[in-house]
Write a structure and sequence with these properties.
single chain; 154 residues; alpha+beta; Mago nashi protein; seven-stranded mixed sheet
Length: 154
């Protein structure tokens, strides 16, 4: 039987060398199929008006509340960072709802993501405690929305 020290050392070596040799890095086409990010609720039930859809290869559509749809393509570092944020979330343990009990008039972020054909859906208000990696993904999606919908310079 291995001593606890040797067992820990074996696990570290196996994860550093053994598993890394067989791992294949996620490519943009297989990290996720599609992300749909919307918000609802809040005072007047309009949310902040966020409506964002991003596909794995980087096609982005953002709709401004009462305004035109903006379409663009994510590339390079921006797309890689989004894929990394998606990969960092522990999807099997994401809860369906992160809603603050007894709270009213809160904006709720609604996220539906399809990863390799499997759909995950979650809803979170701004007061609810959510996993840090999911919060990071929400922050990244908010930033993408802001960059995609700011007025164009003339």
């Amino acid at each position: 039987m291995l001593s606890p020290r040797r067992l820990v050392a074996a696990i570290i070596l196996a994860s550093a060398f053994g598993f890394g040799v067989h791992a294949t890095p996620a490519t943009p086409s297989d990290a996720f199929d599609q992300i749909t990010y919307r918000d609802t609720g809040g005072f007047g039930a309009g949310g902040r008006g966020i409506s964002l859809t991003v596909t794995g290869p980087g096609h982005l559509e953002a709709e401004v509340l009462g305004g035109p749809k903006r379409v663009r393509t994510l590339q390079g570092e921006e797309l890689a960072e989004l894929h990394a944020a998606v990969a960092a979330v522990d999807w099997p343990h994401v809860e369906h709802n992160y809603l603050t009990p007894g709270a009213a008039d809160l904006v709720v972020r609604n996220l539906t993501i399809v990863i390799r054909g499997e759909m995950c859906e979650t809803h979170a208000d701004f007061l609810a405690k959510i996993p840090p990696a999911l919060q990071e993904l929400f922050s990244r999606l908010d930033a993408l929305y802001r960059r995609s919908t700011r007025p164009e310079k003339r």
